[in-house]
């Protein structure tokens, strides 16, 4: 195995993966985008589908209350157990609502975004990420992949104003990440993962948007 290669952490958790790691093309842009947006949030924040709360540390100290919501499970440590389709909070309870890589796993993602918007006060922020391209995972609870146009419709339907809709990983990063997932299955394949990562990131600077790995949505409640 190449001395460059570095495996994912065990047990796995979302992390700012280095160029040596097999999930670099997926996680590095995601982590960078959230590291830019999450520190702008203030006050009370609800995190829907919080899991083990891996992104909580990116929030600003001015966040006065953080409430993680999830269903019970071995990889989740919620403060409140609830379904994303029907959050148990009054309207306008929070200054911001966030959710990360969750809405592909729900049956009605538009309803979940509308619920997140409902529990945020007028003028508050809604931030979420979703996949555009990714292999099936957590089956059978894997229902959706998203495009720019579908997300714009979901945001409008929730009565939100779009602040930013950012692609995270375009054509070459997406293709490179899919290759790295397969290369990570063998010792010989792992040796070339760092080279794939570096090459894909370099080529992605001028790549088309049609094949996007993940999306960052930042919206605001009027």
Can you characterise this structure?
- The protein has 222 residues and is of the alpha/beta class.
- The chain has a domain at 30-169 and 212-220: Vaccinia Virus protein VP39 (Rossmann fold), CATH 3.40.50.150.
- Helix content is 28%, strand content 23%.
- The protein has helices at residues 24-37, 109-118, 148-157, 171-183, 187-190, 193-203; strands at residues 43-48, 63-70, 80-81, 94-100, 120-131, 161-168, 214-220.
- It has a seven-stranded mixed sheet with strand order 3-2-1-4-5-7-6, sandwiched between helices.
- Helix 4 (171-183) packs antiparallel against helix 6 (193-203).
- The radius of gyration is 18 Å and the shape is globular.
- It starts with 23 loop residues before the first helix and ends with a strand.
- The mean pLDDT is 96.
Concise synopsis of the structure shown:
This protein is 28% helix and 23% strand.
| Main sheet attributes: strand count, strand direction, barrel closure | 7 strands, mixed
* Residue-averaged pLDDT: 96
**pLDDT < 50 stretches:** none
Name of the CATH homologous superfamily of the domain at 30-169 and 212-220? Vaccinia Virus protein VP39
What is the string of helix and strand elements?
Answer: HEEEEHEHEHHHE
Strand content: 15-25%
- Architecture of the domain at 30-169 and 212-220 in CATH? 3-Layer(aba) Sandwich
Q: Strand order across the biggest sheet?
A: 3-2-1-4-5-7-6
Count of β-strands: 7
Cα-to-Cα separation, first versus last residue = 53 Å
CATH topology of the domain at 30-169 and 212-220: Rossmann fold
Class derived from helix and strand content = alpha/beta
Radius of gyration: 18 Å
CATH class of the domain at 30-169 and 212-220: Alpha Beta
Label the overall shape. Answer: globular
- Count of helices? 6
Percent in helix: 25-40%
């Amino acid at each position: 195995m190449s001395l460059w290669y570095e495996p994912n952490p065990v047990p796995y958790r979302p992390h700012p993966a280095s160029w040596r790691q097999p999930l670099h093309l997926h996680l590095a842009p995601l982590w960078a985008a959230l590291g830019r947006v999450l520190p702008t949030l203030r006050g009370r924040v609800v995190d829907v589908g919080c899991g083990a709360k891996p992104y909580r540390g990116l929030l600003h100290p001015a966040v006065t209350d953080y409430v993680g919501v999830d269903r019970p499970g071995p990889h989740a440590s919620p403060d409140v157990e609830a379904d994303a389709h029907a959050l148990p909070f009054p309207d306008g309870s929070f200054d911001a609502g966030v959710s990360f890589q969750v809405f592909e796993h729900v049956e009605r993602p538009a309803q979940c975004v509308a619920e997140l918007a409902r529990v945020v006060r007028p003028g508050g922020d809604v931030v979420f990420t979703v996949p555009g391209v990714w292999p099936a995972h957590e089956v059978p609870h894997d229902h959706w992949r998203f495009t720019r146009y579908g997300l714009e419709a979901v945001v409008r339907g929730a009565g939100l104003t779009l602040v930013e809709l950012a692609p995270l990983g375009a054509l070459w990063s997406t293709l490179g990440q899919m290759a790295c997932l397969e290369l990570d299955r063998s010792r010989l394949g792992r040796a070339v993962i760092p080279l794939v990562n570096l090459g894909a990131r370099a080529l992605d600077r001028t790549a088309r948007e049609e094949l996007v790995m993940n999306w960052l949505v930042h919206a605001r409640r009027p």
